[in-house]
Amino acid sequence: MSYLFLFIAACMAFSISAICGGGAGLLLIPVLGTFLTVSHVPAALTIGTASNSLSRLWMFSDSIRWALSIRFVPMSLLGATVGAELLKNLEPMYVELCMGVFLVSNLPDLIRKPKNSDGMPTPKEGWQVLAIGGLAGIISALTGAVGVLFNRFYMRHGLSPQEIIATRAANEILLHGYKLFLYYGLGLFDLKTIEYGALVAIASIISSRFMRNVLPHLSPVIFSRIGISAMVLVGVVMLNGAVLHIRSSVDPSLKLNHLAEDFEATLTWNKLIYSLEFNYGEGFEFEQVVPLASLSLEQQEQLSLIGQNYDHILLEKVTSLSGEHYEANIFGPDQKLIKTVEIN
User: Largest alpha-carbon pair distance within the chain?
Assistant: First the structure.
């Protein structure tokens, strides 16, 4: 049943991307995330998107802007190397959150009156193409997809819808192949990942036939509007997926307390506690719960003497405009706060 659901979802995603010039990969990130571990999603997605780029390259080869690709591809490969290295150390859910925020930020462009295609700017400076290529490589390695994320870059170079699809496919085919090599080196391929990736690949090839019939009938202005709409939609989906992953992984909570002379905001993140406190007489203080090992041996001895008759001690590192110090919150029975002692 999972294979059928993924195949139908992939067909729908690539059909939508056929009209708006991309976004299927980004739409499929949360779907694949329900079947695979987060770290394996980029590998499965790359198998599918590589097949999609290859079929588009074959169908729209006459519309490729090779001058753009020659500058774009080398930096994208370098960026993919950096992104693969980051994938080992960064939580993909935070990358997903940042991308979701970026995509949703395009909502004002959807509301504005569209510009006429005749006013399209001429190609930008070469260094901008290199920078965008490097950024595309990094993001693609981290998530397995770029898609509609950089459509605006191509539009600003005055490319028609067919040229965007063709040039992007040319730019991405080597990038996807290189990413597959990097993912293999990271040990991100197993039988399940390959099976799901193959299903996405089949759906992408089917959608390419649909795209070939639709694109000639779309004007650049309509193509642009649909593309921006897709960016916002994908952003909402990614934000929702990122929030769900963050909630299940780090169990965040935020509490606000207002006392007579203090206002305190306490954030719990992955079992770590951070507090921002404002005292009308002392100003702002940032507090972080730290282990007792953060203290010197002399300070630890001092604290053990103070708290030896109590049930629990919570040590906080306090940072303010006047400097840093430690505070020990000493609790008695029923976790009732007895007193707070400053450790010097």
Answer: 82
The model's pLDDT over 76-99, given as tens digits with 9 standing for 90+, comes to: 888 888 888 887 777 767 777 877
Residue with tokens 């090779």: 66
Residues 228, 290 share a domain: no
Q: Are 153 and 243 part of one and the same domain? A: yes
Q: Residue 195: how many CA atoms within 13 Å on its side-chain side?
A: 9
Structural domain count, the chain: 2
| Amino acid (one-letter) located at 20 | C
Q: What confidence tens digit (pLDDT) does each residue in 197-222 have?
A: 898 888 888 776 666 666 666 676 77
pTM above 0.85, yes or no: no
Return d(Cα 165, Cα 19) in angstroms, integer.
11
Same domain, 239 and 258: no
